[in-house]
Amino acid sequence: MKKYLLLLIFCFLLLECRIPVFSGYNESKIITESLIRDIFDLSENQELIESEYEIQPGDWLLKIAEKKYGDGSLWEAIALFNPEISNPNLISPGDVIRVPKIIEIEPEVIKKPVEDPVETEMPDILEIANFNSGFEENLLGGAFGVWDKDPDDITQSCRMEFERNITSTGYGYSLKLIYDVNSPNPAYNGFWMHLLGADFTPYSFLYLSVKGEPDAGFTDRFKIELKDTEGVSESFMLDGITARWQEKRIPLAFFKNIDMSSAGEFVVVFEDQVSSPKTGIIYLDNIYVK
Ligand SMILES: [Ca+2]
Ligand SMILES: [Ca+2]
Fold it and tell me: 40-49, 115-124, 214-223: which has the minimum mean pLDDT?
């Protein structure tokens, strides 16, 4: 940890500030304490120096770093704080050098180095499923399948198939959901798909392509449910489904209570109280967030 923090300092000094600290020891004199304070936004009160050390015969910086930190590779830290040293291998016994303290830098303290680099760009779209592989695994690596409220109740069911001939894109497969919530018992079922903790926070909308099967009949509405990995769920009633492919766009803000940084599951719910007709076929394709 300590080593990490010191090396962090060097990384930023060398890469972000482009100060030739170690490329030549004559140039290293431009490193000053005020510059270090400025770079790391450290207050004047923040102690940078742990102690002073008198160089002993036979010492060189690597050896001193071993004595002080138990890690010779940190000699550069000492060099940084002693710009008068022009060659780390040639130091004079009797000279007193400054031994830097390990600085516990809070992330927010490292302001300039964090602001300057090019920010890590999130892709502006995260594809979740297109069903084109024909395997029961989505593009995030998550499994999917169908579920029933009561698998033992033969009067209600949901089955799925990969459909080659009816896709939103004209190639690959779509997912065909054959539902039946026509039952004397309370009935609901549908489709589930794991999202494996995907981070949805950079995205605003959930998209999915959907259509009904006119010959078999289909409900023009069903519920979409999102769950986070803690199991908190929110649902949204998707309606206006027709026999033609439509790309539906659902604001992720509608799923307001779930933790979007850790998406757990996407669920389709056909309910006896909602579905009309109570048996039918729905196709899904191209599910993504953007
Ligand atoms: Ca597809
Ligand atoms: Ca039935």
Answer: 115-124
CA of 167 to the centre of ligand 1 (A): 6
How far, in Å, is the centroid of ligand 1 from the Cα of 172?
Answer: 5
Q: What's the domain range around 164? A: 126-289
| Closest ligand, as measured to the CA of 130 | 1
Between the CA of 185 and the centroid of ligand 2 the distance, in Å, is 10
Residue 225 β-bridge partners? 235, 267
The answer to whether the CB of 195 falls within 8 A of the CB of 228 is no
Pick the last residue of a domain from 80, 115, 150: 115
Q: Say how far residue 108 (Cα) sits from the centre of its chain.
A: 20
Helix ranges (H only) for the chain are: 2-11, 33-40, 61-69, 75-80, 111-115
pLDDT tens-digit series, residues 69-106: 777 877 877 887 787 887 777 788 998 988 887 655 44
- 47 CA to middle of ligand 2, Å? 75
Closest CA to 233 of 208, 209, 259, 270: 259
pTM for this predicted structure: 0.60
Residues 198-255: tens digit of each pLDDT: 999 999 999 999 999 999 999 999 999 999 999 999 999 999 999 999 999 999 999 9
What distance in Å separates the CA atoms of residue 239 and residue 217, rounded to the nearest whole number?
A: 15
- What residues flank ion ligand 1 with Cβ within 5 A? 130-132, 167, 172, 285
Q: How much distance in Å is there from the Cα of 182 to the middle of ligand 2? A: 4
C-alpha 285 to ligand 1 mean position (Å): 5
Interval between CA 133 and ligand 1 midpoint (Å)? 8
How many structural domains are present in the chain?
2
- Cβ neighbours of residue 204 under 8 Å, at least 6 residues apart? 251, 252, 253, 290
Are 229 and 92 contained in the same domain? no
